[in-house]
Structure formats: structure tokens, C-alpha cells
Automatic annotation (TrEMBL):
This is 2-oxoglutarate (2OG) and Fe(II)-dependent oxygenase superfamily protein. It comes from Rhynchospora pubera. GO terms for molecular function: dioxygenase activity; metal ion binding. The keyword Heme does not apply. InterPro entries: DIOX_N (IPR026992), IPNS-like_FE2OG_OXY (IPR044861), IPNS-like_sf (IPR027443), Oxoglu/Fe-dep_dioxygenase_dom (IPR005123).
């Protein structure tokens, strides 16, 4: 790196434009700024001919035999991959498409509209920016994001951008219902009563992260999302047809191909902690691409940093024994998130910090 390169100043100048990565692309750049360049390990993928499970939720609420089989599938996928896709989940295809289009409308709106929401104040209900860890991470991701804190205390309707206002509220109604079903299946997969995870409020909070990955002039030098695991209990991801999502499994990258009408579900760090490593929060990433913009919507089940939410989370007592003692210390969601954000997406798991 050239001695004259002032990384901090370049990052600050980028942030102060409030234009994000899309602003760079719209300006016509042919070379990406240096602070987006990832270490070589990020851009040297290996692939493994493995498949992320696809689970059909048809009849899961009405057929006892079908439900038992689905619980087995969810349990197996959560133990092995930490990822699976769900189909026939009850959310209409039109709703999925409308949500993606609303996100696209916002990110492709006039810059003066988007600038109104650009902030790094995570206490706000709507946070639009590029890279939450822009100043902490070793390299920036080729991605802009709008985060909306939808639960437990949703924003007022007029606090959301018009481009995606109505559809976000409609979509999250479906997501909450599906989340309740998935937490039941996960509870049963752990051998607990079906409402255990909801009783301890794993589904109480919901953050909706709408991602926009502009086409990149040098996609081999950066990534859309750095290798990371999710700092939540459970994530439900809606992705468009572009592709690029990969899961790290047995030291290889496994593709998660776009599947029309499907949602990608993955275990978060906090669920790995409370399941005492029975379910795996697996690292994943999104590749940059040089052709078309990619849009996705990640719904994180997690409460926010409000001091009022001071519940301690550690390994569930019913899952520990003398032979299988607790592997993690207890933590609040607030403390967990504060540590996660201070660390940034450095390519290493935050779970080690909470291990006993």
C-alpha cells in the first residue's frame, strides 16, 4: 500500500457524500476505491458439489405425520448446514416480488430522497447507509443497506420511504407468522416444547435489512458481503434471481441458488449459543458481480439495543447435562450486538468471545 494513501480520509469522504456504493457506480467509476479491496482469501472461492436442503412446509400446521417429518428435516439442516430453503411457506409469490420491487425502487430513487434517511445512528427506526462497519471493518463491502426496526416497536407508517412503505408493513406481517412457525419447528427439533423459543422471546424483535448490490467494475477485487455469520436468532432471506450467496461448509463454498418462491432460512449466532452448539450459525458471503444489480431482503429476528430488553441468553438448561455442560456465558442482546458492531465484519466469528 502506498505510503501516501490516506484510508481514513477516503472513507470519510465517501461516507459524507451519502450516496453509497450506487453513487460510485452512477458516477461512472472504472476502478473501485482501495478501501473496498478485499484480502485475496475473499476472492479465491472453492466450490463443493453439495446442496442446501429445500424443505416443503405444506401441511405443517395440519398434518401430524408431515410435521414430524419436517421437524426432522429442519433439525438435520440446522445441525449440518445451518441453512435451508423453505417453499410452500404461505407467503404469496406476488408479495415476494412486490417486496423486492419496493426495495429496488428505494435504492434507485433520486439521491435527495435517499439522503434524508442516511445515518449511522442505530437508535433510529430507519437507517440507510453503506456498510454498518465502514470505519471498523478491514475492507468495505460492495453494498448499500436500509435497515428498518419493525418489532417490537414498529415505526410509524410515514417514517418509512414512500417507495417501500406499504409493502414493508404487509411483508413483515407474513414474515412474523412464518417466523412463529419456524421457531416452533426449531423448538421441537431441539426436543423442547413447541413454544419454548417464543416463550423466551426469540421472535420478539424483527429488523428488516433491504440490501442493494450495484454492478461492480472490478468484482474480482471485492465482495458484496464479507464472510460472516448473522448476529441474531434466525434470519429469513428473500433473494432475487441474480445469485451470489454462498455458505461456508467443510472449508468449501456451497452455492445457495435462487429458487422462485423460496425463502432462505439460516441459524443465527444467538440460536447457536442458546442451543449449546446443537444448531450451527454458519458463515456465508455474497459475491460481487459485474453485470446487474442484486436485491435481497434479510429479516433478522432479534431485539434491539434498548436497555429495557435486558433478558440474559445462554445455553438452554434443558439442553445441558453434566456430560454436555454449557459452552457459552450468558449475554444480553444489547451487549452481544455492541461487541459485534465494534468488531466489524473481519471474517472471524464473534462466538469465540462468548465461549466459556
Amino acid at each position: 500500500m502506498a505510503a501516501s494513501y490516506d484510508r481514513a480520509s477516503e472513507i470519510k469522504a465517501f461516507d459524507e457524500t451519502k450516496l453509497g456504493v450506487k453513487g460510485l457506480v452512477d458516477s461512472g467509476i472504472t476502478k473501485i476505491p482501495q478501501f473496498f479491496i478485499q484480502p485475496p482469501v475473499q476472492s479465491s472461492p472453492k466450490s463443493l458439489p453439495a446442496e442446501i436442503p429445500v424443505i416443503d412446509l405444506t401441511g405443517v400446521k395440519s398434518d401430524v405425520a408431515l410435521r414430524s417429518e419436517v421437524v426432522k428435516q429442519v433439525k438435520s439442516a440446522s445441525e449440518i448446514f445451518g441453512f435451508f430453503q423453505v417453499v410452500n411457506h404461505g407467503i404469496p409469490l406476488e408479495m415476494l416480488e412486490e417486496m423486492l420491487e419496493g426495495v429496488r425502487r428505494f435504492h434507485e430513487a433520486e439521491v435527495e430522497i435517499k439522503k434524508k434517511y442516511y445515518t449511522r445512528d442505530v437508535s433510529k427506526k430507519v437507517v440507510y447507509n453503506s456498510n454498518f462497519d465502514l470505519y471498523e471493518g478491514p475492507a468495505a463491502n460492495w453494498r448499500d443497506t436500509m435497515l428498518v426496526n419493525m418489532a417490537p416497536q414498529p415505526p410509524k407508517l410515514n417514517e418509512l420511504p414512500v417507495a417501500c412503505r406499504d409493502v414493508t408493513f404487509k411483508y413483515t406481517t407474513y414474515i412474523k407468522e412464518l417466523g412463529a412457525t419456524l421457531f416452533e419447528l426449531l423448538s421441537e427439533g431441539l426436543g423442547l416444547k413447541s413454544n419454548h423459543l417464543t416463550e423466551i422471546e426469540c421472535d420478539k424483535g424483527l429488523n428488516v435489512l433491504s440490501h442493494y448490490y450495484p454492478p461492480c467494475p472490478e468484482p474480482h477485487l471485492t465482495v458484496g458481503t464479507t464472510k460472516r455469520s448473522d448476529p441474531d436468532f434466525l434470519t429469513m432471506l428473500l433473494q432475487d434471481g441474480i445469485g451470489g450467496l454462498q455458505v461456508f461448509y467443510e472449508n468449501y463454498w456451497v452455492e445457495v441458488p435462487p429458487l422462485s418462491g423460496a425463502l432462505v432460512v439460516n441459524i443465527g449466532d444467538l440460536l447457536q449459543i442458546i442451543s449449546n452448539d446443537k444448531f450451527k450459525s454458519v458463515e456465508h458471503r455474497v459475491l460481487a458481480n459485474g453485470s446487474r444489480p442484486r436485491v435481497s431482503v434479510a429479516c433478522f429476528f432479534i431485539t434491539n439495543r434498548n436497555p429495557a430488553y435486558n433478558r440474559l441468553y445462554g445455553p438452554i438448561k434443558e439442553l445441558t447435562t453434566d456430560e454436555s455442560p454449557p459452552l457459552y456465558k450468558e449475554t444480553t442482546v444489547r451487549d452481544f450486538l455492541n461487541y459485534y458492531d465494534s468488531k466489524g465484519l473481519a471474517g472471524t466469528s464473534v462466538l469465540d468471545h462468548f465461549r466459556l
